[in-house]
Amino acid sequence: MRDSLFLAWRYLRHHRAKTLLLVLSLSVFLGLPLVMRAMSAVIQESLMARAESTPLLLGKKGSSLDLVVEALYFQPKGIDALTTADANEIDQTGLALAIPMRTGLMAQQFPVLGTSLDYFSFRGLKTAEGRGLATLGECVVGAEVAASLGLKPGDSILTSPSTLFDLAGVYPLRLQVVGTLEPSHGPDDRAVFVDVKTAWVAEGLGHGHQDLATAGNDVILKRKDGTATANAKLVQYNEITDENAESFHFHGDPSNYPVSAIIVVPNDDKARVLLRGRFVNDSARQLLRPAQVVQGLNEQIFRFERVLQLIVWTVGLATALMFVLVMVLSWRLRSDELRTMTRLGCSRWKAVQIMGAEVLLMVGASVALAAFFGFVIAQFGEAWLQNLILRGS
Amino acid sequence: MIELHDVQFEYSQGGFSLSVPELRISSGTRAAAIGPSGSGKTTLLNLISGIEPPEAGRIQTAGVRVDALSAAARRSFRITHVGFVFQDFLLLDYLDVRQNILYPYRLHPELHLDADARTRAERLAANLGIERFLARRPDELSQGERQRVAIARALVTAPKLVLADEPTGNLDPATKQHALDLLFEQCDAHSMTLLMVTHDHGLLDRFEQVVDVSAFGASRS
Percent of chain A at pLDDT above 90? Predict the structure, then answer.
């Protein structure tokens, strides 16, 4: 067999372009279904783990999938907002802990989550460096954000304006990084965390500016009944510092301020049942179990994957037939070589062994290549594919 | 050395038959087989080497009754007792010259590719003047150089008999003479019997025996 392998290796090496093409085709044929199955299993598992760790989620009536995807995986879906009054209502029942979440903002391409300190203990997020949130304008960044932007406590990050070409719109807010989180191997690694009030400031619902009482007349349009109206010259702060923190304020009723969703952590099973009962007939809001919604998504992924597998196997079959055709034609072209072998005294079995060794080497190389790419994709493709699925869901 | 007696042969698909009443070529002889195209020269080589079994008659080559051997035994006999030189050389373009010379060792378990075989290959290459091409591929060589590689491959297993089917047919006159010189030299040096098919009657005076195959009974249907 050693001689057969030697001859096969020399032949394949000499015809390296043809060999490489065949090996690549075969490796795609062999690797794709396996990688797809493995990736799909890992993604479904990770989606489900996140959903199962979130007992109940309160949001506005609408697509339950969009609500779960935006609240749990921070993929912007444009869901309608609840208000802080809804969070207070949950708190006042005494049945559960309400964790408000304000999503939809971005900071340098990473999602910003405005929430309360309870979120960190609820998700088991630990500070790797620095400290947790304490005052307005501070942020804590997930492990992946810290790594990819090279952030550490003391650095800052700008929120991305949602209305880039609207000069009168909301300007970016500079957030002070006070801590980085340990990796949690989930969406929290790719998020920037701020207090929900900081999120409102970043959205323009709260703001800080030069004191109108001490401002010069060049910035005042009119003064009437103890109130002053300023013109565009008034200095608006785009960063919350110790010096200007007191100037930040919110207008209107705080109980009407928006929250995208509320994580509801019931005290016990009975509280869970009671809460679900309360929202069953609510016409404006929905209280759902994320695991149930993700189960539905997983079933869709599974159905999609089965269709894809069918396509891949069909293409694979065509590839295999092409491979056989190429090999048969190649052997036919080598009839002189086969005749020489026979005339010199080589048995047919030996000739088959040499041809078989060529197939074996190519299939072996294809399996190795498929395994290598499978490993690489499994290592680096999971987050990418998960984002793709959630964005498209 | 080579004895054929009342040999009858017909290809299984029909179309050509050959009968050889009597043929004797002594050991160590340089013999030429001549005859017009289609007279059965190549068929005669095939019968002597055991590539084709006869339907009747007796064939004794290098002291072995080839006609009595099984197909597997004939293959074994061929690779251990017979060296072949083909007109179109039939070298493998994916092997270098060294590996082409050693090729028979890769094909049969009875031949062991050991240090002795490698030394023999190198010595043959030196004798044939192709030692500096050992690492090159056949397509980098001239026709004459390729023929010398084919001769080295035929001789490397130290066969008792060398069968050459128009080995100089593709060579120019000067190269032809030189290739023949080398082939004779090597066969003489190792006391090998040589039976060479040729159409070139100008070479016949260099052979000790000439076999006119057209004198045998060949027929086409």
Answer: 44
Residue A228 resides in a domain = no
Number of neighbouring beta carbons within 10 Å of residue B75: 24
State pTM to two decimals: 0.64
The predicted-structure confidence for A130-173, as pLDDT tens digits, reads as follows 999 998 889 999 999 999 999 999 999 999 876 655 555 667 88
Domain assignment of residue A38, given as a range: 2-46+297-392
Residue of A nearest to B72 (CA): A347
Is residue A123 one of the residues assigned to a domain? yes
pLDDT in tens, A18-34: 899 989 988 888 887 77
Radius of gyration (Cα) for chain A, nearest Å?
A: 31
Of the partner residues B78, B106, B108, the one whose CB lies closest to the CB of residue A6: B106
Superfamily for B2-220? P-loop containing nucleotide triphosphate hydrolases (3.40.50.300)
Q: Are residues A41 and A169 located together in one domain of the fold?
A: no
**Is A38 in the same domain as A155?**
no
The answer to whether residues A147 and A283 belong to one domain is yes
> What is the ipTM, given to two decimal places?
0.84
Residues B78-113: tens digit of each pLDDT? 888 999 888 788 889 999 999 999 999 998 878 888
Q: Does A8 touch chain B (CB under 8 A)?
A: no
Shared-domain flag, residues A119 and A26: no
Supply B178's token pair: 């030189």
Least confident of A124-128, A216-220, B163-167: A216-220
The residues with which A206 forms a beta bridge, in sequence order, are A250
C-alpha span between A347 and B49 (Å, rounded): 15
Task: Kindly state whether residue A213 falls inside one of the protein's structural domains.
Answer: no
Q: Would you tell me which residues 313-352 of chain A have a C-beta closer than 8 angstroms to some C-beta of chain B?
A: 336-337, 339-347, 350
Question: Where is B57: in which H helix or E strand?
Answer: strand B56-61
User: CA-nearest residue of chain B to A11?
Assistant: B94
Q: Given B51, B84, B93, which is nearest A14 (Cβ)?
A: B93
pLDDT digits (tens, 9 = 90+) for A293-339: 999 888 888 888 888 888 888 888 888 888 888 888 888 888 888 88
Instruction: Classify burial at A267, counting beta carbons within 10 Å of its beta carbon; exposed 0-12, middle 13-18, buried 19 or more.
Output: middle
A276 shares a domain with A188: yes
Q: Is residue A234 a part of any domain in this protein? A: no
In whole angstroms, what separates CA A291 from the centre of its chain?
17
Query: How far away is chain B from the Cα of A366, in angstroms, using its nearest Cα?
Result: 22
* Domain boundaries defined on chain B: 2-220
Flag whether residue A118 sits within 8 Å of chain B, measured between CB atoms. Answer: no
A8 and A101 share a domain? no
Last residue of a domain, one of A235, A258, A288: A288
Task: Examine the domain organization and report whether A203 and A112 are in the same domain.
Answer: yes
Interface of chain B toward chain A, CB-CB under 8 angstroms? 49, 51, 72, 75-80, 82, 84, 86, 88, 90, 92-95, 99, 103-108, 113
What is the torsion angle, in degrees rounded to the nearest 10, for the CA atoms of residue A335, residue A340, residue A341 and residue A345?
A: 140
B84 to A337: CB separation less than 8 angstroms, yes or no: no
Encode pLDDT of A161-210 as tens digits.
766 555 556 678 899 999 999 999 889 999 999 999 999 988 888 777 76
**How many domains are there within chain A?**
2
Q: A10 and chain B: CB distance < 8 Å anywhere?
A: yes
Q: How far is A16 from chain B (nearest CA, A)?
A: 11
The conformational region for residue B35 under phi > 0 = left, psi -120 to 50 = alpha, else beta, is left
Q: Give the number of other CB atoms < 10 A from CB of residue A225.
A: 4
pLDDT tens digits, B149-184: 998 999 898 898 999 988 877 777 777 787 788 888
